Amino acid sequence: MTLLIILLAVLALIALTTWGKVNAFLAFLLVTIPAGLALGLPPGQVLAAVQKGLGDTLGSVALVVVLGAMLGKLVAESGAAQQIAAVLVGMFGPKNIQWTMMTTGFIIGIPLFYNVGFLLVIPLIFSVVYQYRLPAVFVGLPMLAALSVLHGFLPPHPAPTALVVLFQAKVSTTFGYGLLVAVPAVIIAGPLYSRTLRGLVSRPLTGFVREPRPGAELPGRWNSFLSSLLPVLILAPVLSLQGALPTDGALAPTLALLADPGIVMLLSVGVATVSLGLRQGKSMRMVMETYGAAVQDVALLLLIIGGAGALKEVMLASGAGSAIGVGMQGTGLPPLVLGWLIAGLIRVCLGSATVAGLTAAGVILPTMAQTSVNPNLMVLAIGAGSLLFSHVNDSGFWLFKEYFNLSVRDTLRSWSAMETIVSVVGLLGVLLLDWILPLIS
């Protein structure tokens, strides 16, 4: 019955936003409250879950999304994105742009959380699209596939890091195996699959698209790269130090502060205000007007993300995630496949990759002592499952849809299909490693 209610809720969301043309935030509210009541929650608890889901989700992403939009808009308007795009295309050529974008996403995605990375690369993607008259999804999907895979598979991202601890795996081993699985998954879901989407019509948000400017008016190359990629340059050494130094050392509180995505983005916006704003001849008032316009660009998107968080919280409060996981334990499937499947089903039902991964781990963990499964591979199997079929209940789905200005149908065809390919290829890679490792040990 739980699965049927969740399925009906998802279908209602799709119907309201596509056929009914209802605003996505309103659609979430119209679906979430009846779904909570149908799942057995008292009315007061449903409203409390909606408020908690909205507050928790916006509390975790609002700062990053708003500051990321500010940085992205300034990077676009200053010409820094155009400068970076010109350098990359000049080095590798327009024919290899997909591979260039994928590699860039891979490098950026290792230290950066997904939302930060997404907002960081959007101006770069759209600059390449506009300058070289290329389809937006064709150019952007390889880079975003890399960001998504790293978010789901590899430490130091939140869910993989937590899974490593829960399963008593080794960070270095999981990271090494994860790279072996991640690379083919990104290649297949990114450059190869996106070639089938070359005809997909996308009209990116105008706030991140600018007419090409003369080279003399652009910021310098070093300034463009350093200002735009400062979040990477801050997080990479900070995370390295966190891994090398004791967690209770004197520097631990400072490093924890500097590793927070909101603080990283705030520092980056502060530096860019000077390097891409004031030093390029803009007045402080002009820079602040740019930031104000950026907030307007993402205000509705924030509400939609909050709506997705409300639905997720109602599902969690009703116990839907745990019920699904426990109900699948008696299937007799191999542990790695079962871990992937539980995470995948919870992901499809609840929308959150992190929640899916941690819930699946809680279900699988008691059975680990009875099996000889490699804990590092279980981390990767659950991580792959947590990326399965992102759709209308996932905030990442709406980030992609709104920024690329796609219909729900085309977002399902591009973003959701890419995430599913990543998930399935990830599982196959894990099973292949599980077969090979005993042979070479």
Q: What can you tell me about this protein's structure?
A:
With 441 residues, the protein is an all-alpha fold. It has three domains: 1-40; 56-135 and 218-318, no CATH class; 136-201 and 319-441, no CATH class. It is built from 20 helices and no strands. The protein has helices at 2-18, 24-38, 43-78, 80-92, 97-109, 114-132, 136-153, 158-166, 171-194, 221-228, 230-244, 252-259, 261-277, 284-317, 320-327, 335-350, 353-368, 375-385, 395-404, 408-440. Helix 7 (136-153) packs across helix 20 (408-440), helix 17 packs antiparallel against helix 18 and helix 18 packs antiparallel against helix 20. The protein is globular. The relative contact order is 0.15.
Low-pLDDT regions: none
Outline, from the CA principal axes?
globular
The chain-level mean pLDDT equals 86
Supply the number of helical segments: 20
Structural class: mainly alpha
Distance between termini?
A: 46 Å
**Helical content (DSSP H or I, runs of 4+):** over 70%
What percent strand? under 5%
Instruction: Return the domain count.
Output: 3
Q: Helices and strands, in N-to-C order? A: HHHHHHHHHHHHHHHHHHHH
Could you give the count of β-strands? 0
Our Rg estimate from Cα atoms comes to 22 Å
Report the major sheet.
Answer: none
Protein name: Gluconate transporter
Keywords: Cell membrane, Membrane, Transmembrane, Transmembrane helix, Transport
Transmembrane segments: 30-50, 57-76, 96-122, 134-154, 174-193, 225-245, 257-278, 290-311, 337-365, 377-400, 420-440
Family: Belongs to the GntP permease family.
